Amino acid sequence: MRPVVAPSASLPRAAHLARRRLPRRVEERKWSTPLAKQLYEAISTTGSVPLASYMRMCLTGDLGGYYTGAVGQGRDQFGTKGDFVTSPEISQIFGELLGIWFIAEWISQGRPSKGVQLIEVGPGRGTLMDDMLRTIQRFPAMASSIENVFMVEASRELRETQKNLLCGPDAPSTESNVGCHSPSKYGSIPIVWTETIKSIPIESDKTPFIVAHEFFDALPIHAFQSAPASSPKPSSSTPPTPPSPQPDSTAPQTPDESSTPPPMEWREMMVSIAPPSPSSSSHAPKSHDEPPPEFQLVLSSSTTRHSRYLPESSPRYRRLKDTPGALIEICPDASLYAADFAARIGGSPAHPKHQPRGAALILDYGTADTVPVNSLRGIRQHRLVSPFSAPGLVDLSADVDFHAIAEAATLASDGVEVHGPVAQADFLELMGIRERAEALAKAPGVTPEKARDIEKAWKRLVDRGVNGMGKVYKVLAILPENDGRRRPVGFGGDVTEA
């Protein structure tokens, strides 16, 4: 759940211009964070900004973004003391089963002896990769085939946390044009950190195994609403239209053109400044309750460059255009990542690959076949809060459009096919989560209390309730094209020797 897009560089200049022209009484408004003030000053100068720009600044902005310093030194976003708990933090079994999934793919793809890459985007504290590597160590032939482990992480603080876990705090580091290298605690497997996946070369002879867990949900989204098209304003040089003659009541009548529904167009949802609440005054008493939203969504008064292009990029969106008030969310970055994964696995016109190899596993919450709507949420201290309050201190996420990811992957490469999405509960149960939990509970030295914790944890991961993780979270796999002859483990298939 870690975006790796670069923050906008235009806000500091806009903020400087705004600061010189703000009236004194407006500057007295108290802002919850330095980032909130910077956003306010920029919007005051340039006008409302796209939702994606707001999300990008809140999550990875250079002035106190959520994953780039706003949380504060010594505070962890993850875990019971942070803002949310992810599946790897709930149970070690989660990462172990993902490790087993990639081992099964390695076997099914002929047990390559070299050139294997493990790539994780948005690796959090490194817990998932740690559990995967520990599991892979039980299969020495695969472990020795791993050339590099790439950790794609934008946050300097999280990179340090990952290094301490995977390599040890005293592990040496070297720099290259790809990123920072350190030897892992798992034998000779090197770990490489990079801020963007684009820094990792796409090589035709590699076997990339890619995992993205709670990553796509934090990528910036654009939101659009269908509305009647704006009437073009008459030019000043256009001569006035002469009055129409009065109709002859005896002549045949034609339909009134005014009864024809106007054409529809997409308008973009923009982020604007919310009116100040009494608590935002410098003289208002301080409250420990949730701060009021400082920003709000507004509908653009006309089309924008994004609304003219993005909703036209797929027939899924185009067919909704003529529905008045239809809402859609689109994540261009998600499609770019999916296309990158597909090119690494199956090749592309820009990166030909004689034999498709590798696999990608995407685990996140979102929709399987519908377009996400009104899904933006803020999370702080394990509670849902307004995504427009305390920018930089609130985690932002939105539902993942798995259909759009599958579409982008298959369009990017003829050498891949997509399986799923399937419910996380189905995937984990097929992978053997119950059996692994029972084995852990019976291990020597496990107390009855610890055994109960193990049971509680795995059942939480497969909970099929309305908001249960087993139902809300879904799993999608991108594999080398094989005309559907081989289904992967966890998606109805079994291990198949190549």
- What's the mean pLDDT score? 86
**Helix-strand makeup class:** alpha/beta
**Name given to the CATH homologous superfamily of the domain at 87-219 and 331-426 and 464-480:** Vaccinia Virus protein VP39
Instruction: Examine the coordinates and then state which fold CATH places here, giving the name of the CATH topology of the domain at 87-219 and 331-426 and 464-480.
Output: Rossmann fold
Known CATH architecture of the domain at 87-219 and 331-426 and 464-480: 3-Layer(aba) Sandwich
Low-confidence stretches: 1-26, 241-245, 247-252, 280-288
As a percent range, the share of strand residues is 15-25%
What's the number of helices?
A: 18
**C-alpha Rg, in Å?**
26 Å
Count of β-strands = 18
Distance, first to last CA? 34 Å
Helix content: 25-40%
Largest sheet: 10 strands, mixed
| Gross geometry | globular
What do you see in this structure?
This protein has 498 residues and is α/β, with parallel strands linked by helices. Among the domains are: 87-219 and 331-426 and 464-480, 3-Layer(aba) Sandwich (Rossmann fold); 222-229 and 264-273 and 293-330, no CATH class. Helix 1 crosses helix 3 (34-46). It contains 18 helices and 18 strands. The model is unreliable at 1-26, 241-245, 247-252 and 280-288 (pLDDT under 50). The strands form 3 sheets. Strands 2, 3, 4, 5, 6, 7, 12, 16, 17 and 18 form a 10-stranded mixed beta sheet that branches. Strands 1, 8, 9, 10 and 11 form a 5-stranded antiparallel beta sheet that branches. A hairpin with a 6-residue loop joins strand 5 and strand 6 (190-194). This is Protein arginine methyltransferase NDUFAF7. Its EC number is 2.1.1.320. It comes from Trichoderma citrinoviride. Arginine methyltransferase involved in the assembly or stability of mitochondrial NADH:ubiquinone oxidoreductase complex (complex I).
